[in-house]
Amino acid sequence: MTETDAFDDAVRRYRKHRRVNPPTNPIPGLGKIVLVFAAAMTAACSTVDRRTMITIADARVDKAQVIDVGEPGDSPGDLFVFDQPLLDQHGEIIGNNSGVCIRTRMGHSLQCQWTLTLDNGSIQVAGREFDQGASDIVIVGGTGAYEGISGYMESVNNGDGTFLQTLYYRHR
User: Fold this and answer.
1) Which domain holds residue 33?
2) Three-state secondary structure along 28-52?
3) Which single residue of 30, 32, 112, 118 has CA 20 to 30 Å from 128?
4) What b/e readout covers 132-153, taking b as 16+ CB neighbours within 10 angstroms?
5) Mean pLDDT for each 10-residue chunk of the chain (172 residues)?
């Protein structure tokens, strides 16, 4: 008998055993109870507060400091270090925006990590920021009132030294 024949024979014996001795549920209705419990837990766990926050990173006065580490000028590996005022959508200062970006593709994009520091906590973000257009950057965590935050931030370079940052997040 080959290995294939032995395997086929074992499968046939198992199937015959299952037909003769079907599995039984020792507690009638247990399956329904488990299903209702799982549905309730899923609903409870998905109860999140979905929010949107609009901020503006103001780099007009406090421009990013460029650390030119590669070839002279814009080149991969260059660092952009910043600590700038963070404004609300009405232009009022609500905190600061500080972090670092590494040039990964000349004239195209950077890999960034920064912190939005507010009166009641901070929000950390990280991801690829494009030189032009919108960039979706993940929210990696928070402190204080923002502990347990998750979501993403859309960052748009306005071309005037400011960046519109719209945070789409969930907070438990």
Assistant:
1) 3-45
2) CCHHHHHHHHHHHHHHHHCCCEEEE
3) 118
4) eeebebebebbeeebeebebbb
5) 66 64 57 54 60 96 92 93 96 97 95 98 97 96 96 96 96 79
**pTM for the whole thing?**
0.71
Instruction: Tell whether 62 and 147 lie within a shared domain.
Output: yes
Whether residue 78 is found in the same domain as residue 41: no
Tell whether 151 and 119 lie within a shared domain. Answer: yes
What separation, in Å, do the N-terminal and C-terminal C-alpha atoms of the chain show?
Answer: 61
Q: How many domains does the chain have?
A: 2
Nearest to 111 by CA among 98, 131, 129: 129
The label of the residue with tokens 């499968």 reads 11
